[in-house]
Design brief:
alpha+beta; 5-stranded mixed sheet; 5 strands
């Protein structure tokens, strides 16, 4: 499944969860985007895909051709 966030389609995989978590995911991404603009810890522009596991999300971003970063995001 894909979601649209900031005019970008992002693949989302659900494990031990389902599509009912999408509103919480989008809300958490908006909060994360605001926080990251202030301290620049995770580049949401480089977001490659998301895994939702229960009430947690793991955001994966490619920083360059060989590296990938992962960050945790609570959905509650």
């Amino acid at each position: 499944m894909k979601i649209r966030f900031d005019n970008k389609e992002i693949p989302v995989t659900f494990l031990s969860s389902d599509h009912k978590m999408i509103p919480q995911l989008i809300q958490a991404l908006h909060i994360k985007k605001g926080a990251d603009q202030q301290n620049g810890t995770f580049d949401l522009e480089a977001l490659d895909h998301i895994e939702v596991i229960g009430t947690e999300a793991y955001l994966y971003a490619k920083t360059n051709d060989t590296e990938a970063t992962k960050t945790y995001l609570a959905l509650y």
